[in-house]
């Protein structure tokens, strides 16, 4: 049995996803051994529990975003918070577990800090005054990916037209990782955007990369314009804490 100190995040991720069988022979650990290690080491058990919880949290957010009317523009600072927004924000932050020391009640009524969850199809850049926007792609579905790129370019167009600065992050995880990999069908589009706009960052989830490595048994090569981050979830939550709009494609 391997030492629990040598268990990698990729192995834990595979364990949580019931994909231990996809790990190559040199890193293989079966479910029985993993469970035994967890029983013997409370720290490892807690680590697995936290990772599973984080994955479930973000999954819950995706599933519980209302289909219509859920977008609230952060610039509406001086309007009374509607009960609909309060209930949506409360459910989101209960799902996220309340980020580092912030009380939900204080957060909800602080008009200066209002991160927003929405979906690509509902976001209207023509009327938005948002200055920090994160677009998350976790699928390689062509329609979803193209919609994300189209929206990103629309945001840039309208911000330029309004002479307003905006920061944009395009994060890919899970199956969406293929969008940012070498030989991606979107390579030229990403190159063009990166060369023309310095306010756009393309980021690839490190956990997705390690999982792909374990499955394919070869290193994952990203496009030169793409930055590797440790985990999409961590990046997303950190940006939400800092008032970024989160947009799911």
From TrEMBL:
Keyword field:
Membrane, Transmembrane, Transmembrane helix
Q: Does the keyword Transmembrane apply?
A: yes
Q: Which Gene3D superfamilies match?
A: DsrEFH-like (3.40.1260.10)
Q: Which SUPFAM superfamilies match?
A: DsrEFH-like (SSF75169)
According to the record, the segments passing through the membrane are: 85-109
What this protein is called in its record is Uncharacterized protein
Organism field: hydrothermal vent metagenome
